[in-house]
Structures
1.
Amino acid sequence: MAKKCIECGKKKGIFDYDYAGLSSRHGRHPFPERIGLFYLPRISKQGIKTDFLCRDCASNHKVVCKKHGEIQGSFKFGSAPVCQKCVSENTGKSLQDYYNELARNVSNNSENWGFWPIEGRVKKIGREIDAQFGFAGMQEVNNAIRSSNGAGPARELERIWDGIGQWRG
Ligand SMILES: [Zn+2]
Ligand SMILES: [Zn+2]
């Protein structure tokens, strides 16, 4: 006997994915901790799957990104909708990558430590670090520059990052 959706009563087709009990964080979220956590309704007991929730009914339950608000899009292919704004924020770079790029540009000239000529790029790096790793990530990179290149370049970096996120330089 075909299962029926616990919310609308529609019969489960062979290719219909079952969303009963699925987590709102199930999916390829770049920042899973930003996704408001809930579980779709289910009636089956552990281990015995007797219920079915259809895709349309699953999609009536709105998934919210804590940073960008309600996510446009529906549950599909057995996953929750993904926040496209989070996707565009996620560059796939690590703090080490950002540090490397900055450290490469430090010169030994005390008049100019190398960051002002590429101010725009340095600001962009700051915004990307803030979006992905927050204030603590910016601090880590700034501290690493101070350790490897000294207080001068670190101070220059602090001033260029002024106003990005919580950063005040
Ligand atoms: Zn339904
Ligand atoms: Zn988001």
2.
Amino acid sequence: MSSYSSSTVQNTDLCQCGLLPVLKTSWTDNNPGRRFWSCRMYLRKGCGYYRWHDPPVEGRSKNIIPGLLRKIEMLEEEIKELKRKEQKDAMWLRVVIVVVVLILGLALLR
Ligand SMILES: [Zn+2]
């Protein structure tokens, strides 16, 4: 896993771009939940400034957090799948209602 999230806590160091770094959280298997300072321009490559804010992740949490993250991803996938199925079902229901209304309409016209 390699996703990160941002926060607004500040650091007094400047990166090589002369900007205040941003505090982000690593969600990699080796550093789950460990925060680090990064160049503000990271999306446009930036200067590559990088400094850990938290000590290394150790012990039980290092083993548990990646498993929990995978479980969350799995559940999110399941929710997406159920929403897709629900939309499909709702579409079919609308089609059935239109057909029934048409048949009733035709029957009443006779
Ligand atoms: Zn920079």
